[in-house]
Amino acid sequence: MATSTIHSGIQALDEVLQGIRLGDNVVWQVDHLEDYRYFAEPFAEAAIAENRQLVYLRFASHPPVLVNRPGIETVELDPSLGFDYFTREVHLLIEAHGPEVMYVFDNLSALVVEWATDELLANFFQITCPYLFELNTVAYFALTRGQHAHYAVARVRDTTQILVDVYHAKNQIHIHPIKVWDRYSPQMFLPHLVGGENWLPLSHSREAAEVLASARQSPLLETTRPMAPWESVYQKLVHYGDTPSGFDETDPEQLALKQELSRMLIGHHPVFNRLADLYFTLDDLFAIRNRLIGAGRIGGKAAGMLLAQRILLTEKDEAGIDFSERLDDHDSFYIGSDVFFTFLVNNDLFRLRLQLTCDSTTSHEEFQEIEHRFLAGRFSPTIQEQFRAMLDYYGQAPIIVRSSSLLEDSFGNSFAGKYRSVFCANQGNPEARLADFMEAVKLVYASALNPDALCYRSKRGLGANDEQMAILVQRVSGMPYQKYFFPTLAGVAFSRNLYAWSDRIDIRQGIIRLVFGLGTRAVERVGSDYPRMIAISHPQLRPEVGVKVSKYSQHQMDLLNLETNQFETHFLTDVLNKGDYPRLHLFLSVMRDNYPYDPISGKVDGRTEQWVLTFNNLISRTDFVPLMGNLLARLEEAYGQPVDVEFTASVDASDRIRINLLQCRPLFTPGSLVDVSVPTSLERQQILFRSHRMICGGLVERIRYILYIDPQRYYRLGSEAKKSLGRLVGQINRHPAIQADKIVMMGPGRWGSGNIDLGVNVTYADIDNAAVLVEVALEEAGHVPEVSYGTHFFQDLVEAQIIYLPVYPDDTASEFQKEFFEAAPNVLLEFLPHASEYKSVLRLIDVPKTTEGGFAQVVADQQRRHAVCFLNTGATPMLKKGGEDS
Amino acid sequence: MAELNPFKIAQAQLDAAAERLRLDLATHDLLRWPQQELRVTLPIQMDDGKIQIFHAYRIQYNTARGPAKGGIRWHPEETIDTIRALAAWMTWKTAVVDIPLGGGKGGVTCNPKWMSEAEKQRLARGYIRAIASQISVSKDVPAPDVYTTPQIMAWMMDEYETLVGHHHPGVITGKPIPLGGSEGRGDSTARGGVYVTREAAKILNLDLRDKTMAIQGFGNAGQYAALLGNEILGLKLIAASDSQGGIYNAKGLDPKQVVDYKLKSGSLKGFPGADSISNEELLELEATVLFPSALENVITAANADRIRCKISCELANGPTTPEADEILYQNKVFVIPDFLANAGGVTVSYFEQVQNTYNFYWPLEEVHERLDQKMTRAFHGVYQMYLQEKVNMRQAAYLVSVARVAEACKLRGWV
């Protein structure tokens, strides 16, 4: 530890403090900026004189502390971009400047105006100060006295090396060192009169009492004139509410205050703000604040849920659905975003997070270690007390702790599946429930550092954005059944149907992915288990018939086990085998002789093994689908853009549906975490084909292989050869070298058709490694074939997010580059040496070999129904006419 | 270049049999063509109020041995030639099991995946109104087929009865049991296959008890084959597969547990106590009996040499290509051809029609007993031809059925 001192520029001050040392952070608690300037200017002057590097951090709206002149490097920063961003920028700046630099900061109190709470100010200080100390710098800070909460000043005092109170008494300026770390003199901590060469300590009791008594601030009380808008705005609004005329939104001042409160709770996104201003009453905002643990924002997920609820309850529509009778009340709590940072700061995790955000190469093993560090962290007693109160409120009702970060679920971003949600079955004694709950919160916090989330942030250019993790605590909807707890119905719904597998389906009317039990199975994709996909325009249509209805249905359910206190997955038939779950006949059909029969009475007959979850009677006998359709349409209209929602639903004894809306956000396609806008600047020779109909959008980069089954040659093939072709496709699909890379499979007609004249006869297992499956629909004698949309294994494609594209080579708009597919060297025999007789029809193209290192790429924009497959820039086909087969 | 028109393929198969049977030209020519074809155009109102035009067909291929019998297919790529071919195959199938029926088939070019239940019902009723004059229990008896269900059969029966003004349940089979469907239809295909496998084992001098079976395709037929193969024949299930892949355990898998797992989870994947196996590997296992029960064309010239089972009982349609057939025959793999092996389904359909006519319904045991008799007799009929003509079992089955139909035509004095 360095102990060398520097000059403060004021000899008398150096004597009072026994010298300022390298490593010191010096905080001046002042009434006026002038008082801060009184000390900062000589400090700067001395630094310049001694040729020390001096940086002035300029971020406040007050006049400059230092006059700009040679020797001062002024760096301007914008705190309005948020605490996280600002802190990171300061950190990077300090890092870049290295050791033994002198810093002067603008008055820190200005930050509170931007960040709303004293908590974040204290957090900033608590993070920045130790770093400066490590680097042997000297930094000057100021705080406006009497405008910050006591706890915040206390945290500043605890962190800094030097804290000096500056005040005026009897028209004279005094300093009063409150803390001078590692230094001591018998008179050091007395008030000193500033003036002359020696600043005299007020050691006489009468003098000291007179001076201190005339100083303005009462030393023990909380501030009476809070500067932090979090408190001040709220208090003013409460005051207006208490006046006889009540809160008046037509008064511009009151309206501005309400909007400010809304921004503090919801954030600054213009679309959210517009909706919040339009739909939230002051009471709504107060209700949010009253259920907020800690301070700060409630995050995108919570805001989306609350706004959607309010929109539905406010807007009436022609269909006459009164959502006040159809929506469940919610009684959620929010953990403010400031709590996240305080947790990071108090548990020495913030710097770790800064490093990881900048360098997103954390392995999953390293992440486990990070999770352990989070789990070892502690919450402050105040926050724990609030947690306790919340848990007391819920009693033993199961709850879910959901991430609700500021970037999450807001417009244009979605971190679906990246940030965590943790169920708490919430059983056991209060201590055990608190421990479980805190563990859940810590796991959600840790997920902000999840490699996938960091990678997503980085890819979206959000790496440096203010990302604070608020938390939404929701009651799990549902009811106990046996030893379990789960909602009857749950799922996600999209106001646009991006999975229209038939031209009859109106994509503007949306789609529902519905499951029985907890909605995790609808949100996440679980491979061989399938939610029911309901097209709102044609709810009874499904891509399966007969026995396939059973295959493509949900077989397992997620639930909370109240005995084990765990989230669990069970086979439906194991849970429902008693047959006494209410309204079961609405959800189940009975498979007999390969066909599903819908129960005609309130009883489900047949053996449990014959039961299949179709929701057929729910769809045909209740207003569930129109209700959801109406809900989505209203939300889409209010948001002004397509939305997706997460919900649970219940059915009462008279088959009346009630919805619990858990989340609403601008439409996000599951799995597509990337920008799928089709590039407009492609050269003609880059494009391999375009398609204007598809299921599953997304982006597939670095496609190494293209398997192209030549349609004309396929149709000319003998029937025996045709029959064997599907097996060869399967062998290519399973080849280890192919599995290690990405492949597009292009074939004539309907993949998976049992009729070899209609398409290549494969099963899903023969094509499941394809990233993109292309149905080449050749026009035959003027007849444009109807495309299958992959309906032979539609649900598999949806769940595995395999992009399915029909392409019409005869349509000039498809820009189909037939020559590329026909002339590219065929590497089939390198993979399947025994397949030589098929090499003219089965063409395996190694794209980098054909294009001198280039790769193919597919971008499929579901919303615009436009996809393109192209060679990446610089890669042009190197084709010899009539390329030789290998 | 091979001929791809399915009807031309069916004609070629007949030609081969006719040549071997030395059928006279007129009989041969008669059997090459459908006896009657009905082509109708159906205007159907859709849910949105628009009228959509559907093209539909009903073909009675040959009724010399009795009323035509065959399913109604609803498929977007339906063509009259597909239906002609399938109607011909129904003729041979009813003949090979020696039930007093001819062969027929019908279809509507439509995509039922794109239609609501109400639209399907209107289409079903519209179709029956258009073909009502050509069907009845004594003329032509349709049944479910691709994308048509017992529910659709029920609507069709109801429409027909409305038109004729009295009960006439035997006009259509594959109905739900409460409307006159037969007991025992669910496992009829697999059960018929198991009965003929038992007979094949007898003539091969194989004791199947504790021998092994492998099942490719674990839909309805495959599941029942696992259960009944074990229950009736004492076979030990060692492998089964579905579209997601297969499971294998040389020491044996409990068929009931495997079926329960498949029903519960929707797939075989992850069945405890078994190794994974691909569909292709399963076919090549050394199992005594192989039940190809899923796809067409899984045994081809490419893998036929590696098929090591003793008996291949084809519960699926067309699992073996003609080239592969010849290789299996040379390698002494005993193939029970599809239209014999899976004729249990049409046989129970026939039982349904008989019970409807008598308005008297048999208990399940009686259905099983009668099915056993029919299948056993059918098997031996084909086997005798196999011995006599020294052809493979598929060719033998064709010879038996064509000869029976030809004989009926002759007796009627048609040729």
Q: Class by helix and strand content of chain B?
A: alpha/beta
- The 3D shape of chain B can be described as globular
Report the C-alpha radius of gyration of chain B, rounded. Answer: 21 Å
What fraction of the residues of chain A are assigned to beta strands by DSSP?
A: 15-25%
Side-by-side strand order of the widest sheet of chain B: 9-8-7-6-10-11-12
Helical content of chain B (DSSP H or I, runs of 4+): 40-55%
Q: Would you identify the CATH architecture of the largest domain in chain B?
A: 3-Layer(aba) Sandwich
CATH superfamily assignment of the largest domain in chain B?
NAD(P)-binding Rossmann-like Domain
Tell me about the biggest sheet of chain A? 9 strands, mixed
Rounded mean pLDDT of chain B is 94
CATH topology of the largest domain in chain A: Dna Ligase, domain 1
What is the C-level CATH assignment of the largest domain in chain B?
Alpha Beta
Q: Which CATH class of the largest domain in chain A is shown?
A: Alpha Beta
Low-confidence stretches of chain A: 879-886
Figure out the total of helices of chain B.
14
- Give the name of the CATH superfamily of the largest domain in chain A: ATP-grasp fold, A domain
Oligomeric organization of the protein chains: heterodimer
| Tally of distinct domains of chain B | 2
Straight-line N-to-C gap of chain B? 35 Å
Separation of the first and last Cα atoms of chain A: 70 Å
How many distinct beta strands of chain B?
Answer: 12
